[in-house]
Design goal:
Blueprint: H1 2-30, H2 33-75, H3 77-87, E1 89-90, E2 96-97, H4 99-116, H5 121-124, H6 127-143, H7 157-169, E3 174-177, E4 188-192, E5 195-202, H8 210-222, E6 227-232, H9 238-247, E7 249-253, H10 260-263
Parallel strand pairs: 5-6, 6-7
Antiparallel strand pairs: 1-2, 3-4, 4-5
Helix pairs in contact: 1-2, 2-6, 3-4, 3-6, 4-6, 8-9
Length: about 270
């Protein structure tokens, strides 16, 4: 819509210029130099104003596109934050690997953002627009869940268990990593008021499967727990989610640890 209005504006300018040139030609044949000078100046003014307002319109259209991109991205911040933690990982040499998340950004743009964007086709073809989308997605995903920073997540499984307990302790829990061969599938036991939560920690690069659900459910029974939770950073398989739903096991992303008590409905416990 904005693009068509811009084109209509230039058509008006073109009509005025062509009409003015025809008029100038007729006056030139009559030798009316004074009229020619006045009309020529007027035509130059029309062209200059057309360029000025067209430039202003272009800037306004780009700013509106940026506003829509920010709004759409922020609406999906929670999901983008979780996926960022699942897809970004550390390589063998300590470098951060972003390739998998870059593919997710493209998927998000094609399947989520484009259907919601209400801008003209010519803007969608601008490479700068997609670059702006990528920047906004990264900014939004990295700022999601400020209570848990991806940079603080350990890369060693045992350290990850202690890290999980420490995050819970900072948010009102009395949590300890169990460690050892006798843990019976429990990596962390966390107490909130009178509620005992049995947690298994999975620092996988791929989605967690059924085994973790089975183990933590068994550990809940063994330790007389009130709830069972698996915490990971790479998502869960469909079958794991189905089994967890059937057995009342909660599957969470690391980003959800600070809000675990609310998720379990424990905010009123003391």
């Amino acid at each position: 819509m904005a693009g068509s209005k811009r084109g209509e504006g230039w058509i008006v300018v073109l009509v005025v210029v062509v009409g003015g040139l025809i008029y100038l030609l007729s006056k030139g044949l009559e030798g009316d130099l004074a009229t020619i000078t006045i009309v020529a100046g007027g035509l130059l003014t029309v062209v200059a104003l057309g360029g000025y307002y067209s430039g202003g319109s272009e800037k306004a259209r780009i700013e509106e596109a940026h506003r829509q991109i920010r709004t759409i991205t922020e609406k999906h911040q929670d999901a983008l934050g979780k996926i960022y933690r699942q897809k970004v990982y550390q390589g063998h040499y300590g470098e951060q690997k972003y390739e998998a998340f870059d593919k997710e950004v493209n998927y998000f743009y094609q399947n989520i953002m484009l259907p919601e964007l209400n801008i003209s086709e010519d803007l969608l073809l601008l490479p700068e627009l997609y670059e702006y989308v990528v920047d906004q997605v990264y900014i939004t995903a990295e700022s999601a869940f400020p209570g848990v920073s991806i940079d603080t997540i350990p890369h060693d499984p045992i350290e990850f268990e202690h890290w999980t307990a420490s995050v819970l302790n900072m948010h009102g829990w009395d949590a300890q990593a169990t460690q050892g061969s006798g843990d019976q599938g429990s990596d962390v036991v966390a107490i909130y008021g009178r509620h005992k939560c049995i947690i298994q920690c999975k620092l996988y690069r791929s989605p967690v499967g059924n085994k973790a659900v089975q183990e933590v459910n068994a550990a809940k029974t063994f330790f007389d727990g009130d709830s069972a939770v698996v915490v990971g950073k790479s998502g869960y398989t469909r079958s794991a989610m189905q089994l967890a739903d059937k057995n009342g096991v909660r599957l969470i992303d690391v980003s959800e640890l600070p809000n675990l008590s609310n998720a379990l409905g424990l905010s009123n416990l003391t």
